[in-house]
Amino acid sequence: MTETREEWIKKRAYALWEEEGRPAGRDFAHWEQARAERQALERSAASLDGKEVKTRKRAASTPKANGAAKAAALKKTTSRKSA
């Protein structure tokens, strides 16, 4: 059975609460920490259960990166000509 995002957060928040000795009044902090951990997990290359690491394909260079590379190359070329 696949666990929903909310179920995962709920279980993780509960685990955080237990790890801290079951303090009163920290439920919101534990929920937010669990939510943040889930977001980080979703952005990582790990599988949701943490048992395998997915390989991410390297994205093609972005137009912004290409523009920066071209600008740097142009700067080198123009500095050589003026010297």
Characterize the structure shown.
With 83 residues, the chain is mostly helical. It has a domain at 1-53. 63% of the residues lie in helices and 0% in strands. It contains 3 helices and no strands. The longest helix is centred in the last third of the chain and has 20 residues, at 63-82. It starts with a helix and ends with a helix. The model has no long low-confidence stretch (mean pLDDT 76).
- Biggest β-sheet, characterized? none
Order of helices and strands: HHH
Distance between the termini: 69 Å
Total beta-strand segments: 0
Rg over CA atoms, rounded to whole Å, is 23 Å
The amount of helix comes to 55-70%
* Overall mean confidence score, pLDDT: 76
What percent strand? under 5%
Number of helices: 3
Using the alpha-carbon principal axes, give the shape. globular
Structural class assignment? mainly alpha
Which regions have little confidence, pLDDT < 50, spanning 5+ residues?
A: none
Describe the structure in brief.
The mean pLDDT is 76. This protein is mainly alpha-helical and 83 residues long.
